[in-house]
C-alpha cells in the first residue's frame, strides 16, 4: 500500500477509470449552466435606480464576474432590469424592447417605482403602478433606490431560478397573466391640469385694486381669439 501525498510536486497521472475522465449530465443541467453563466442585461435605465445599476458594474462590486456583459441592443440581450420610473408614455416602448429581446428572457424590477409606482403612486397621473402590468417579472428588488449589493443578490436569485428550469416544461411555466402586451389599448384619461386656469379673466386682466396700487396703466388682456392664435 502506497502512501498518498497531499500536495505532490509532479502532476498526477491520468487514470483509466471511467468515473474520473467522463462527466455525465443532462441537457437541462448543461443548458441552464451555460444560460445562467452568460446573462446579457440590456443597458436600460429611466431614473435614479440606474445610478445604482451602474455602480454594480463598477470595480467594487464587478457584476461582470457573473458573466454578465451589458448590451446596447435588445436583439443581443436576454435580461431586462427596469431601473427607474416607468410612465404611461414610455410603457409602449418598454413592451417593445421586451418583445425584441431573445428567448429565453428574464426581467428584474429594480426599485419601488417599478414595483408599485413608489413615491409617484399617490398623486401622479402618469406613473405606471408596477411594470408587472406590462411585462412578466421574475425577481423584484425593493428599495428607493436599492444598493448594488441588492442587485447582486437579485442576480444570484435569478441564477438559482434558471438552474431549476426545464426545457420541456418551459411553455408550462411561462407567465401568461398579470401583464399586457402591445395590442392592449390603454384607457386614455384626460389630463387634470390643462392650463385653462392660466387663461382666466382674473389672471389676464388685473383687478382695479392692483392697478390703483401700482399706479401704472396696465394693458388690457387680449381677446380669447387672439390668445388662441398665439
Describe what you observe in this structure:
With about 230 residues, the chain is mainly alpha-helical. It has two domains: about 150 residues, 3-Layer(aba) Sandwich (Rossmann fold); about 30 residues, no CATH class. The protein contains nine helices and three strands; from the N terminus they run H-H-E-H-E-H-E-H-H-H-H-H. A three-stranded parallel β-sheet has the order 1-2-3. Helix 3 links the parallel strand 1 and strand 2.
Percentage of residues in strands: 5-15%
Widest sheet, order of strands: 1-2-3
Termini gap:
102 Å
> What integer value in Å does the Rg equal?
29 Å
Number of helices: 9
The percentage helix is 25-40%
What is the 3D shape?
elongated
CATH topology name of the largest domain: Rossmann fold
Which class of secondary structure composition applies to the elements? mainly alpha
Short note summarizing the structure:
The termini are far apart. It is built from nine helices and three strands; from the N terminus they run ααβαβαβααααα. Strand 1 (79-83), helix 3 and strand 2 form a beta-alpha-beta unit.
Amino acid at each position: 500500500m502506497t502512501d498518498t501525498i497531499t500536495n505532490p510536486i509532479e502532476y498526477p497521472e491520468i487514470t483509466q477509470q471511467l468515473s474520473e475522465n467522463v462527466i455525465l449530465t443532462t441537457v437541462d443541467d448543461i443548458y441552464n449552466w451555460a444560460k445562467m453563466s452568460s446573462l446579457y442585461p440590456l443597458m436600460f435605465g429611466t431614473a435614479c435606480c440606474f445610478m445604482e445599476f451602474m455602480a454594480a458594474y463598477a470595480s467594487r462590486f464587478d457584476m461582470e464576474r457573473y458573466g454578465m456583459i451589458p448590451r446596447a441592443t435588445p436583439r443581443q440581450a436576454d435580461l431586462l432590469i427596469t431601473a427607474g420610473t416607468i410612465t404611461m408614455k414610455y410603457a409602449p416602448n418598454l413592451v417593445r424592447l421586451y418583445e425584441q429581446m431573445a428567448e429565453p428572457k428574464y426581467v428584474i424590477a429594480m426599485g419601488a417605482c417599478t414595483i408599485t409606482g413608489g413615491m409617484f403612486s399617490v398623486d401622479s397621473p402618469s406613473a405606471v403602478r408596477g411594470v408587472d402590468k406590462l411585462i412578466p417579472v421574475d425577481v423584484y428588488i425593493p428599495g428607493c433606490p436599492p444598493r448594488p449589493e441588492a442587485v447582486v443578490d437579485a442576480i444570484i436569485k435569478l441564477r438559482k431560478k434558471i438552474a431549476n428550469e426545464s426545457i420541456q416544461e418551459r411553455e408550462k411555466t411561462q407567465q401568461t397573466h398579470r401583464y399586457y402586451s402591445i395590442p392592449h389599448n390603454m384607457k386614455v384619461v384626460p389630463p387634470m391640469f390643462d392650463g385653462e386656469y392660466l387663461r382666466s379673466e382674473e389672471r389676464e386682466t388685473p383687478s382695479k385694486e392692483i392697478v390703483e396700487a401700482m399706479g401704472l396703466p396696465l394693458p388690457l388682456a387680449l381677446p380669447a381669439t387672439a390668445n388662441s392664435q398665439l
